[in-house]
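Hey team,

Sharing the Transcription termination/antitermination protein NusA run so nobody has to redo it. Sequence (327 residues) first:
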Amino acid sequence: MVKNLKKLIEQVAKEKNLPEWIVEGALKNAIALAVKKDRKLKEHLQVELLEEGIKVYIVKRNNSETVRFPLEISTEDVNRIAAYAAKEEFLKELEKAEEERGYLEFVEQEGEITVGIVRRVLENGDVLVDLGRVMGVLPKREQIPKESYRQGERIKALVLEVRKHRGRYEIILSRTHPKFLRKLLEAEVPEIKSGEIEIKAITREPGERAKVLVHAKDMKMDPVGVIVGLRGSRINPVSKELSGEKIDVIRWTENVEELIKKSLSPAPVTKVRLIPKDKRAEVAVPKEKLSLAIGKHGVNVKLANRITGWYIDVLSEEDFEKLSALR
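Structure output:
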């Protein structure tokens, strides 16, 4: 009986292009399930395929120790149940094993971009994405707010996490994570992937605006110009993928005043006053550029705060001078 099962394992492994240990595990699970049904057992069972025959054990946990007890079952019975399991339960268990392997392959892709097809939008707003052999989930919280998704639509996303939830694997996708923008930039700008340009920090308000702080190893290189490309040839495809998200690329500098000025791009900053003990900065911009510096719903200054690590008070030039006079 065991020899026949071993041959079955080898054959199925070859046909399905799966490792033999996965197929053997699926068969053992199928036999355990069949024994539980036949004997009406609730305990956890473990099956071993030995040269002398099939052995079944009841597995119990005492405190932190796991103990196995041989299940008293005749060779004839266990062979009969195993033969049934190989026919009736094995395919179901094999499908589960194949699916699990597909999910585990995505563990190695965490932090990378994947492409899939939208299969369904759930009532809670989560999106089910067909990734080939397995399904991924793009939760509502990981979606760019202004986007909507249609069945059959091709979609790019970051593989954020592969996790086990309620006994099943889930692939969690994201289009809002800063690393998604980082990977899109890497794909468009070879100098980032090669290490010639380093991305020091990214912050985003998904679908609205992002700021990317960059540094070139070669001081003669203009990292901002390289990333943006001729007439925006490199940055525009990234912005388009993010539903028009505006991307400010900022050259890193150790000079804090200069960094704060650049961080408020596209607004021109004329003066900066640092208050180091509070890690706060007051900046002056022309009155007509005040709303540009602050940004819609305060997005621009909020991102500037994050990318610099300083709290920035944006003032008109007139108010800046008045405040200076009071001091």
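The chain has twelve helices and 14 strands.

Ping me if you want the raw files.
A.
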